[in-house]
Write a structure and sequence with these properties.
alpha/beta; four-stranded mixed sheet
Length: 460
């Protein structure tokens, strides 16, 4: 929509710099201004309804107008709108949320540190492990292993861990010592004649070779999303995560599960690590922690890591890290109520049940002329669009066709996300089976419109 003079669109394009946006293109196109939300739906300023099939940014578990979260925020605003957690201060909401997170996560995770975003959390994890290893007399143990196409945030440290070229280009990243290994996506990176088991074995061999090449005594951590999301919705091959965990245990490398998107029921299991059968030393959570009603992230980590950090803070006199809003009382009150709703409504079970229906309904689109692969787990899915199904040849340039599909989605009242030419779906956890069928039907129209456009444009 072309921005009009004195409209909200005009003010936006003359004042704002948007994240993950071509700024010059935005000046011409202007924003879609979302005015309100209800359940899985959002409405623009003209009143048009859209199914928000990406849950905002992979994050709104309980829908867009949950009164209980609003009431929790208001009640905490009235009682204690802000306080910090520096210098031996605390407040009830952050105490109770930390207690809840320790209760919910694997038994070895016993300590919690709060930030306001997943990026800040992963940045903090880097600093925690550097601090820990210095305290333990291992000053060389500072490197990280991450994966190509992994997403871990956009700060200097977390952006370095991220394995997406656009997040590095012209930002001078990576800026910390990190090695990126092969993306564990069998469809795209499996070799000719290679079985999935062979693919897993090759990737684990590569990781071990990197460890030996760099030296195990120089590697602090291995970080990964259990199911890779923002890079294109890529479930791991069978056996991958138990194999990675075994390597981390063998070489004394801390295993970090980035659960920012996977966590709190998205895959139909409590956490992605539980879903794929491994036990991390550190778990990073955000997004669905508060359904993104308030900015909040939590790092849940082992007593072993805590002890090393605590001892060093005693030696130095402080743990010299933290944020003004660490454990913000309103955010943590909303998070605690949000997790209560997820449990009371069995939204993890809903993700398993309705997610199975969604995956089954999407599966036939593998036969669509544009679709190379349909993949996902629970209530997250991706459809990769290709120029040639037999050879898996991608479109050139990657992203042009996906962007067209994204725009056709708006025409059809469906908000999805294109990651290059992969169309991603991640509806709120409250979604019903009937609503999933409507999402799938609208997506079918989007695919057909996109196929017609590809043919008309002569794209191959």
């Amino acid at each position: 929509m072309k921005p009009m003079s004195n409209s909200a669109q005009h003010v936006d394009v003359t004042t704002a710099l948007h994240p993950y946006t071509d700024a010059r293109a935005h000046e011409e196109k202007g924003p879609l201004v979302i005015d309100r939300g209800e359940g899985i739906y959002v409405y623009d300023q003209s009143g048009k309804q859209y199914i928000e099939a990406l849950a905002g940014l992979w994050s709104v578990a309980v829908g867009f107008n949950e009164k209980r979260l609003r009431d929790a925020a208001m009640a905490q605003m009235e009682r204690l709108p802000y306080y910090h957690s520096f210098a031996h201060k605390a407040h009830e909401p952050s105490i109770r949320l930390a207690e809840k997170l320790v209760e919910m996560t694997p038994d070895n995770l016993t300590r919690v540190f709060f930030t306001s975003s997943g990026s800040e959390a992963n940045d903090t994890v880097v600093k925690m492990l550097w601090y820990m290893n210095n305290a333990l007399g291992r000053p060389e143990k500072k490197k990280f292993i991450a994966r190509n196409k992994g997403y871990h945030g956009i700060t200097v440290a977390s952006g370095s861990l991220t394995g997406l070229p656009a997040n590095h280009r012209d930002f001078d990243l990576p800026a910390i010592p990190v090695r990126h290994v092969t993306c564990p996506h069998f469809y795209r990176f499996g070799e000719a004649g290679e079985s999935e088991a062979d693919f897993t074995a090759r990737l684990l061999k590569e990781i071990e070779e990197v460890i030996l090449e760099e030296g195990a005594d120089t590697i602090a951590g291995f970080i990964g999303e259990p199911l890779m999301a923002a890079g294109g919705v890529m479930p791991p091959p069978e056996g991958y995560w138990p194999g990675v965990e075994a390597l981390c245990r063998k070489y004394d490398i801390k295993l970090i599960a980035d659960e920012v998107i996977n966590g709190f029921g998205r895959l139909g299991s409590s956490f992605g690590a539980v879903h794929y059968g491994f036990t991390p030393d550190i778990m990073v959570t955000s997004k669905q922690l508060t359904s993104s009603y308030m900015p909040l992230a939590a790092i849940i980590f082992s007593e072993e890591i805590y002890d090393a950090i605590a001892d060093n803070s005693h030696k130095i006199g402080t743990f010299g890290h933290g944020f003004t809003a660490s454990g913000h009382p309103v955010a943590t009150a909303v998070g605690l109520e949000n997790l209560t709703i997820i449990e009371e409504l069995d939204l993890t079970g809903n993700a398993a049940r309705v997610g199975a229906a969604m995956q089954a309904a999407l599966a036939p689109y593998a036969d669509h002329p544009l679709v190379g692969e349909v993949r996902g787990a629970g209530l997250i899915a991706g459809l990769e669009l290709v120029a040639d199904k037999d050879s898996k040849r991608p479109f050139d340039p990657i992203g042009k066709v996906g962007t067209a599909a994204f725009n056709f989605g708006h025409d059809e009242g469906l908000i999805l996300r294109n990651v290059g030419d992969t169309l991603a779906l991640c509806p709120p956890l409250i979604v019903t089976e009937a609503q999933v069928q409507e999402i799938v039907a609208r997506l079918g129209r989007v695919l057909d419109l996109t196929a017609d456009w590809v043919a008309a444009e002569g794209i191959a």
